[in-house]
Backbone:
């Protein structure tokens, strides 16, 4: 390495597969030092902060924009996720459930098109992030009971406003043409899902916005938010508009963590699979896959022929975000066993990487894009594990809201102006209540899974789960 000041290997590359694909990583961008003025200050250099900066600059090139990142670009979930780019929003029904069908269809069209739009922007801007639109399978792949779960989910998607063309049922034979699960009973094919390498995207996006004139300061943790001013230990940015883009990494900054808490999610990556193994697994279109379990699991075939697979989040007492990336052997083994249970052809395959991070869960269980004109404070997040595509849509929306553009996006039900996050998002309950509730939900879901595994239905547990779902409304 010739210029060790500029480039250094990233420690995260030892456990995070995506980080390992970045051959050279710029060493820290300069810290914020002293007091500066800007038009927009953005806190957090993940997808939300960077997409917001990108669209602001594209729409209004004269704006002076400063991004403050506590660690490195992509330190949060954006550099660590499973790489699914989903044409849906987690919690969409909470925004549009009561609207007339025509409007619901329109909103579903916006979130579905967002996937194609991401592909177009990456191509136009020359960001090579292994974007591949292969669709996704939501399969009944292990137990017969999963057929009904997935059928219900498909019905829900159509009721919501997703088209038959975008989401349709595959019978066992059609499913087997796409992937060879242990017991592929059938499943949903969702056409509007792509996959990508998130570390390449976040790194490429940061370089792109810098080329457009945005300043990014790393190791510059915002410690205080005053009226139109954000301070770090070594300086401050004075700006009429401040964007908080910290999602599941808000920590002690301002009061965002009272409304959006971090939930951990852990991921593994296999070694590159041989051609023979891929023959046995299928997935030639490099699609994404998941099976029906409330203990969510999701995977996809990477550009270099591995499987990246994530499953089962958890919540840490005190809502601490996961700063480090490493995860333990037991956590890796559990995910490996689940993956092999889904795809038995992977028996004996080596797991090369295992890592984790935090995603943001809003107390309203739906994502938001908010710009409070009165205070000049904007924020977006609460994507609940579906933020790769959503952060693009919401960053773009924030740019429209901040620039007061009367666009279709600015009129979507998840876009809010003239109110603060405090008015729009409920506060999470105090500890240990939310930790105890999270434990109870996790154990009852695990119990449900174990009963399904033994071919038994779980009416009592369903009632327990429904009860918890109702008290957290
Ligand atoms: C393991 C895992 C798997 C996932 N898989 C998927 C998936 O497959 N598909 C999908 O759609 N979504 C997935 N997600 C969710 C998705 O990654 C996130 O929703 C999305 O990346 C959020 O982007 P963001 O920019 O809002 O937040 P982040 O990427 O979390 O960025 C927030 C940034 O703010 C910085 N920050 C925090 N506090 C401060 C401060 N005080 N000052 C300055 N900076 C600060 C942090 O360091 C961080 O870099 C996953 C998440 C995880 C953790």
Residues:
């Amino acid at each position: 390495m010739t210029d060790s000041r500029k480039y250094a290997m990233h420690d995260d590359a030892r456990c995070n597969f995506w980080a390992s694909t970045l051959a050279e990583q710029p060493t820290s961008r300069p810290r914020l030092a002293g007091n500066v003025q800007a038009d927009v200050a953005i806190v957090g250099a993940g997808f939300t902060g960077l997409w917001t900066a990108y669209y602001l600059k594209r729409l209004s090139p004269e704006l002076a924009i400063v991004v403050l990142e506590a660690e490195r670009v992509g330190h949060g979930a954006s550099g660590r996720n499973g790489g699914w780019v989903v044409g849906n929003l987690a919690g969409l029904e909470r925004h549009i459930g009561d609207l007339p069908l025509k409007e619901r269809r329109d909103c579903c069209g916006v979130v579905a098109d967002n996937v194609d739009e991401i592909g177009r922007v990456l191509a136009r801007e020359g960001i090579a992030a292994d974007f591949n639109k292969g669709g996704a399978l939501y399969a009944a792949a292990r137990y017969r009971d999963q057929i009904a779960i997935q059928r219900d989910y498909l019905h829900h998607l159509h009721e919501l406003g997703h088209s038959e063309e975008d989401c349709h049922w595959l019978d066992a034979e059609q499913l087997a043409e796409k992937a060879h699960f242990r017991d592929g009973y059938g499943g949903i094919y969702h056409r509007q899902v792509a996959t990508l390498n998130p570390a390449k995207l976040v790194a490429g996006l940061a370089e792109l916005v810098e080329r457009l004139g945005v300043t990014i300061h790393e190791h510059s943790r915002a410690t205080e938010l005053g009226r139109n001013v954000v301070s770090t230990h070594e300086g401050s940015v004075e700006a009429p508009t401040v964007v908080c883009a910290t999602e599941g990494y808000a920590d002690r900054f301002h009061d965002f963590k009272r409304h959006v808490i971090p939930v951990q999610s852990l991921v593994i990556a296999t070694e590159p699979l041989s051609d023979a193994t891929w023959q046995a697994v299928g997935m030639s279109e490099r699609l994404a896959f998941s099976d029906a379990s409330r203990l969510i699991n999701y995977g996809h075939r990477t550009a270099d022929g591995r499987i990246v697979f994530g499953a089962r989040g958890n919540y840490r007492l005190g809502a601490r975000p996961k700063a480090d990336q490493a995860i333990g052997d037991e956590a890796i083994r559990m995910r490996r066993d689940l993956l092999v249970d889904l795809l038995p052809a992977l028996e004996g395959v080596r797991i090369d990487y295992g890592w984790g991070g935090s995603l943001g869960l809003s107390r309203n269980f739906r994502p938001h894009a908010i710009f409070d004109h009165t205070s000049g404070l904007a924020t977006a997040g609460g994507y609940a594990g579906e933020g790769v595509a959503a952060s693009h849509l919401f960053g773009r929306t924030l740019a429209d809201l901040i620039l007061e553009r009367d666009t279709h996006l600015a009129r979507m039900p998840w876009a809010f102006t003239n109110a603060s996050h405090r008015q729009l998002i409920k506060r999470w309950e105090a500890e240990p209540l939310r930790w105890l509730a999270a434990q109870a939900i996790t154990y009852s879901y695990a119990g449900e899974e174990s009963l399904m595994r033994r071919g038994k239905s779980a009416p009592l547990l369903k009632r327990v789960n429904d009860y918890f779902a109702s008290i957290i409304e």
In short: The two ends are 54 Å apart (CA to CA). DSSP finds 13 helices and 23 strands in the chain.
